[in-house]
Amino acid sequence: MGESFQFIDIILFALVAGFLILRLRSVLGRRDGHQGRAPDPFTPQPKAEPANEKVVHLPDRGDRPIEPGTPTKAEGSLAADAAKSPLEIGLTQIAIADASFDPDGFLSGARIAFELVLNAFAAGDTEALKALLSPEVYGNFVESIEQRQAAGQRLETKLVAIKSSELVEAYMAGRTAHVTVGFVSQQISAVYDAGANVVEGDATQVIEVVDTWTFARDTRSSDPNWALVATGTTD
Asked: The pTM is what?
């Protein structure tokens, strides 16, 4: 009797198991051999690289595509600087340091200073020279005037004309601007001794003189005047 009950229990368990298998197949579906193997969690899987991972889209800035061979802004700026002469670069640097600097206005003032210095030096007017020259150049001019006076000599110089004046060099040394001007002038110059005899030069001959004068100014100073810091003459 007991054995018959055990047999009935086995049949009931088999029926329940079959029912569960049928339910699982209806819910999960069947494997037909095309699903591929399940991934092994212990095997590193290759990472799929997202499309355009390194592409960052920025808002439209109005940029236009650059044609091949077209210089960029930086390259264009370097090319422009390379095309400039040292004089142009120097004048630009001075204009940056001193917004009031005007090359044409400076050149007009240099012509006036040229005539004032020549006349003051010939007359021995050290006070007038002091306002126009740097201390070093002023000292040289005063020494020459004193030597001339000690020898009893007199200098007469007449500026007939300034044939040309042009900017030949410009640069910044720290905050001090330097500009060199080339002058070509016609002058009559003669040195007389105490007896009014010409001991140097010719009072009747017009000569052409080529000068290079360098003016400087501290761009931080409130004084707008430039001082003569160097002179050179080519006979």
From this structure: 0.65
